[in-house]
Queue: 3 jobs
Job 1
Amino acid sequence: MIAVEDYLDSMAWAESIGGLSGLIARSEANLDVMKAMVAKYPWINFLAQEADTISNTSACFTVDTTPENVKKMTALLEKEGVAYDIGAYRDAPAGLRIWCGATVEASDLEALVPWLEYAYTKVTTE
């Protein structure tokens, strides 16, 4: 019954933000934050090569550094309590994977971006 209650709470929340269209709008706004980041920094790019294949929920990125440095970045962000489990999947190219779905606030992603820049700068200039 607890699982059913959680489901009902989730559905009520989704309805309170505008239902399906509200969920999609939040994901698109989150993706816009990530697009702005990619436009600003030359060292990070979307993994997807074609704009229409970029996910607005699980955004994946390549980082212009070594795979070892990407691991150092994710470890630093975790140590600082900023982000957990954002490394690319094991079989994917070295990079980052950031959840941008409707359950994330755009302001949280905006707060993450300077941390990503900090981590990149720190590991590539050591």
Job 2
Amino acid sequence: MFETEKEVLNWYERHSRSLTKSFVSEFPWPEIKNYSLDPAFVPVLIYMRDVESFTDMYYREVLRTPTGKDPVLRRFMERWVVEEADHAEVLNRFLREAGVAVDDKWQAKAKAAIPRSYTIRN
């Protein structure tokens, strides 16, 4: 289907994002509270939210490598990192709408929980 990385990127960029602001605003957020959420699933959603949020750190790390210097991969990653941040925000909103107490500083606290040794080594 694709012969080069550039063809893949062109295909990717021709497609609109699925998770648009319009889509998110039209989602029936108030209805979420009408459905029960298994408490055992909450940590999974929090983990998923945090991983999506941490993509920016991964992106910065990859930029320091030969892969991050490839213009085609870099362009893909520039769009990808924005999309992942949006996913984190949608997951966080879902948690709030489901009645899960979410700290307003969740992102800063999650990043602060990353071991200091990670940032020292890298």
Job 3
Amino acid sequence: MQRRRKPFNIDTHAAHDASGKETVLRFLRQLGIDAKENPNRYGVDLLGKNIDHTWEVEKRPEWEDEWPYSTVHVPNRKEKFLQLSMIYAVVNKDLSKIMFCVSPIISECEQIEVPNTEMTWGEYFFNVPVNEWQVYDVAAFEYHY
């Protein structure tokens, strides 16, 4: 079957991108990791300043308290970033939780077609078991600026 990619949606991007990235940046800083937003808007979202890691961030409005599924779908269109020492970060609806998974685990997972409201056919995702993700409660950390 032909693979398709979801077209860029400026409204979705505006609603979720900045808050998701800012939440992950604050959390990383609390862990002592110095990171910054990538100035290349077509590149991976966040860059480590003194380390080789990068982070791709996605805010998932369907995730409230507990992750509601047995797997996490990472879009196939993010495959270009999996060659980096990339960590995929998923942020929940109210920015209170983050889960992380490293690129080597994601790239080894099966890719499956997942019909959804924006793409009814042809969009593929890495089907990553939820137990491969590290989940953190952002509220348990106090931010200092």
